[in-house]
Amino acid sequence: MSKPRAPSPLPTTPMEGVDESTWMDVIQKMDEVYTRLIDDEVELEKKNSELEQSQQFIFSVLTSMSDVLLVCDASGLIEQVNAALCELVGRDESALRGSEIGSLLADDSSRTLAKAAIADAPRTGEVIELNLLDAQGQAVSVDANCTPRMGSDGRCVGTVWVGRPTAELKRAYHEMRAAHDALKRTQQQLLHSEKMASLGQLVAGVAHELNNPISFVLGNVHALRKYCDRLRSYMEALHAQATEPELHALRKQLRIEHILNDLPSLIEGTLEGAQRTADIVHGLKRFSAMDSEERVPVNLVEIVDRAIHWVQKGRSQPPRVHWDSCTAVTVLGSAGQLQQVMMNLLQNAFDAVDGQGDGGTASVWVRLTQATDDTVRVSVRDDGPGIAPEHMLRIFDPFFTTKPVGKGTGLGLSISYGIVEQHGGTLTAINSEQGGAELSLVLPAIHCDKYTGLGFDSAS
What we know:
Layout: H1 20-64, E1 68-73, E2 78-81, H2 83-89, H3 93-96, H4 108-120, E3 126-133, E4 139-150, E5 156-165, H5 167-201, H6 203-239, H7 244-254, H8 256-288, E6 296-299, H9 300-313, E7 320-323, E8 330-333, H10 335-353, E9 363-370, E10 375-382, H11 412-422, E11 426-431, E12 437-444
Parallel strand pairs: 7-9
Antiparallel strand pairs: 1-2, 1-5, 3-4, 4-5, 6-8, 9-10, 10-12, 11-12
Helix pairs in contact: 6-7, 6-8, 6-9, 9-10, 10-11
């Protein structure tokens, strides 16, 4: 900036009609104008400095952007690009400036989409998928956002394109999806493994339960075979046209009347034993099979009844179970998964009182009540030592168990918690005021008149 000049000296020779005061006014006005010029020059230099800082800021932002950016005029010619685009396409800014945006695209479809976006830009911004040519001449998928660039008069003077290469995102998405699918498969395998572990604990009791009807059927079949031999002997005598006294004596000897009277009960008993065996096998198959995602109306009372029956059969000295069965309560879900949850809760309760009694003093209480108008609660309480305070927040964690090594996997309650969540319910644990631990399962109930023909009573 130049230095201020000294005020002009007064003329030595006076001018006609101009006195000294007039000259003083002129000099004062010149000084004012000069001062204003100095101030304007200072302000201009300040504005230039701010402009340079703004340009440097914009340049640093454009340089640091990981997304590609380019600015086009109204005809689609490139006016400005950022470093990310130059690096991607392998060309510098001077080579790109003035070229058409279509020269950066890898296929005709992308060029058509870009032209349509430029034509529609004055109305609205648009996100489209384009294929850019990278430095190696390979197509790179980019999600590009095209927005209009307005001039000072409010008219569209071009477009601004911001794009993000999606190849890495798509690869990461596919990897995440594959990992998620693998996690789901692992979860299903853990679920099935835990079910099979629970099933293994019931093998001894179920084998004993199967032995009764099978032995009953086997005994009846042996009796039927003997009866069949006697009837064959009598029929052979009939076909040989034996005399009436001989037939009467043979009939008495073979006890034909007793056979005829005993046959209906033998056949009925055999069918009953076979049906009991079939029911047990069917229940085991349904429990051990992998569950589908389908949700159907399920009678929760039958689930509780069957769980109590099976868990008791799996114990040599089961505790006393206090359970008053009621009318059918229907929920929407998977029978096999809910069966697993109930069996797990009962097995934990049985384990909690194991060794505290001879089966006559140790007790487990099972109650089914209506929690709200639309939900039901099944609570399982034992008279064991309860849950330690330091364990209360961890009992639903995977692989957490207080049982000795080899006695538990630590997955039962964790898997049960997940199953209940999938059914839209809750599973909680507390130490009961009466003593022992109490786990409560709350599930949404449904009204069975919506599912006529299923044989369920109305929810209670």
